[in-house]
Amino acid sequence: MVHTAWEPHPEPLTLASAPVPEYGSGSLADLLPTLATGMGVPGLTAAIPELAPADRNCVFLIDGLGWEQLGAHPDEAPFLTSLMAGSRGGTGRPLTTGYPATTAVSLASVGTGLPPGRHGLPGYTARNPATGELMNQLRWNPWTDPHAWQPHPTVFELAEAAGMHAAQVSSPTFQNTPLTKVALSGGTFHGRLTGEERMDLAAEQLAAADRALVYTYYAELDGSGHRYGVASDTWRGQLMYVDRLAQRLAEQLPPRTALYITADHGMVDIPFDEDHRIDFDEDWELRAGVALLGGEGRARHVYAVPGAENDVLTCWREVIGDRFWVASRDEAIAAGWFGPHIDERVYARIGDVVAAAHDDVLLIASEREPNESAMVGNHGSMTPAEQLVPLLEVRS
């Protein structure tokens, strides 16, 4: 049973009850290394063995399409639903995104084939230890050297070095962003404005070589969820559109191709009332001893004033520990939230306290984060609605 914000848990949540992502066997970070290994790219591990090798592989990532949301809307997405396990001929199953379940983190995991503790993007916003400032890792603000922040090669770069055709097909807006450079670089980038153009060009790129690794992306479903919620007509309309896009691409696959349709996170709608939205900027207990508030409403990094780390941890557990999993940095790392290994450069980017929402609740900051605090649909934590994303397969 999932408790609601107005139905308190009998006691604080235990860290052992947090459903840690399936790093190394069933996470987003395992997808591209598995595909590239099957194509003959050296130095990677095929961590999802049920994915049979193919000469050409395409990943279509739909931003914001959770496994649970897809399963709840078969009428709006008949093609995608037909690929889910349990449907006639469907073998699709869920992957876990990794923690936190948010776009910048997940795209870095997809492109590098590494969990957040290795690639070093541990949240929507995170502290830069070199400057002490919060860095927005989606918008890359304030600026920092992308390749110093994330130095590992992408799977696309490794595939290109191994002699394969690698390409990304996405909106022209993303071509030169730092996030694209650190997460998805390698091969050629092709910017196209419409979803139909992207699907058609992705099929062309797959046919351009005997061995090809192609990535394409659609963002607007996520935007509709944030603005209007996953219960909205607008979101359902977007789902109908991406269903048609996926079918359009599937019908154009060249021979010996495997298409994988996935996402970067799911989403939950959070009501606009005090039971469901806790405002950090108006809560003196939660603010006490806190120097910086990072992350996002359902996946917070809390950076304490030096010397106040234990007090902040104790206070946060007392105040929100019945609705959030609240861990110290070392506890979250030991529990594997960010993956089995943490690069040294990443350690201090993680909050002194890490808080992941369990219930349908949001820790907003109305003054410092007015836009994010006004979102209907939210994500970031380890609940199934946020963590589970589709892994749907089509072969030609």
Fold topology:
Blueprint: H1 31-39, E1 56-62, H2 67-71, H3 78-82, E2 93-96, H4 103-112, H5 116-119, E3 125-127, E4 134-136, H6 146-149, H7 155-161, E5 165-170, H8 178-183, E6 188-191, H9 195-206, E7 212-218, H10 220-228, H11 233-250, E8 257-262, E9 268-269, E10 277-279, H12 284-287, E11 290-296, E12 299-304, H13 309-320, E13 324-328, H14 329-334, E14 353-357, E15 362-364, H15 370-373, E16 377-378, H16 384-387, E17 388-395
Parallel strand pairs: 1-7, 1-8, 5-6, 5-7, 10-15
Antiparallel strand pairs: 2-17, 3-4, 8-17, 9-16, 11-12, 12-14, 13-14
Describe the structure.
- The structure is a single chain.
- By secondary structure, the chain is of the alpha/beta class.
- It has two domains: 28-269 and 383-395, Alkaline Phosphatase, subunit A (3-Layer(aba) Sandwich), CATH 3.40.720; 270-377, Gyrase A, domain 2 (2-Layer Sandwich), CATH 3.30.1360.
- The chain has helices spanning 31-39, 67-71, 78-82, 103-112, 116-119, 146-149, 155-161, 178-183, 195-206, 220-228, 233-250, 284-287, 309-320, 329-334, 370-373, 384-387, and strands at 56-62, 93-96, 125-127, 134-136, 165-170, 188-191, 212-218, 257-262, 268-269, 277-279, 290-296, 299-304, 324-328, 353-357, 362-364, 377-378, 388-395.
- The strands form five sheets. A seven-stranded mixed beta sheet has the order 2-17-8-1-7-5-6, with helices on both faces.
- It is globular and about 60 Å long.
- Residues 1-9 have low confidence and may be disordered.
